[in-house]
Design goal:
single chain; alpha/beta; 6 helices; 10 strands; 33% helix; globular
Length: 232
């Protein structure tokens, strides 16, 4: 993490940030338009952690404000997600190599689903060095996969949603509601980013039940990985 001395962290929900927040040293609370920022230190790193709320617009607002106000060397989005790849299980870790906005649909104009005109792609690459460092911080014995994470302003719990996602992005590992917006804004600003997700559900008809059972634990798992990353 030598080149990432100031790290921006974005989480949608309190349970996805509380353990990391409680571990910050010299912490101060800053009110932002996008939410609450907790500024402090872990190891040799300055950390600006923003609790932004659910959804792509909320995440995008938080990241742009983080970049404008604190000039982070990288941005990490942490939290839970629904696994959609074959064989992925609750508790597995997914780290991004790329992200896509699965619900961005301009196909009627002849553009691919997820296509971001300003970036000229539907495939937004995460920073490989950062993603590799996060993967190395995952505790031994946990299942970790690196690949595509997709985001949309929909909680994925129905088969028709899965069919749309996998029909366009057959390599997608999991679905959530913020990561691709984080990647979109970071790419526009040329700031390295990565997304870390712990599976809280399997994005099926049971997801509304599984989510509330497992989201808090998934958030704590991601926080422990990030604290190890920042402490090393």
């Amino acid at each position: 993490m030598d080149r990432f001395s100031t790290v921006g962290i974005v989480a949608a929900m309190e349970v996805e940030l509380e353990l990391l927040r409680s571990s910050l040293e010299e912490v101060r609370t800053i009110s932002l338009a996008s939410g609450t920022c907790y500024m402090g230190r872990i190891g040799n790193h300055t950390v600006a952690a923003v609790l932004c709320g659910i959804g792509k617009v909320s995440a995008a607002l938080a990241v742009q404000e983080l970049i404008d106000r604190f000039q982070p060397d990288c941005v990490i989005n942490t939290g839970c997600a629904g696994g959609i790849a074959e064989g992925i299980k609750i508790g597995d870790i997914v780290i991004s190599d790329q992200v896509s906005e699965w619900d961005l649909d301009s196909t009627a104009l002849g553009l691919p689903r997820g296509y971001v005109c300003s970036l000229n792609t539907a495939d937004i690459p995460a920073d490989k060095a950062l993603s590799d460092r996060i993967a190395a911080a995952v505790p031994e014995g946990m299942t970790v996969r690196t690949g595509r994470i997709v985001s949309g302003d929909q909680f994925v719990s129905r088969q028709e949603q899965r069919d749309i996602i996998l029909g366009t992005f057959p390599d997608a590992l999991c679905a959530e509601m913020e990561g691709a917006a984080v990647g979109h804004v970071c790419a526009q600003n040329r700031v390295p980013f990565s997304i870390i997700r712990c599976m809280s559900d399997t994005a099926d008809h049971q997801s509304n039940v599984d989510f509330y059972d497992f989201a808090a634990g998934a958030g704590r798992t991601c926080n422990r990985i990030l604290m190890k990353l920042l402490s090393d």
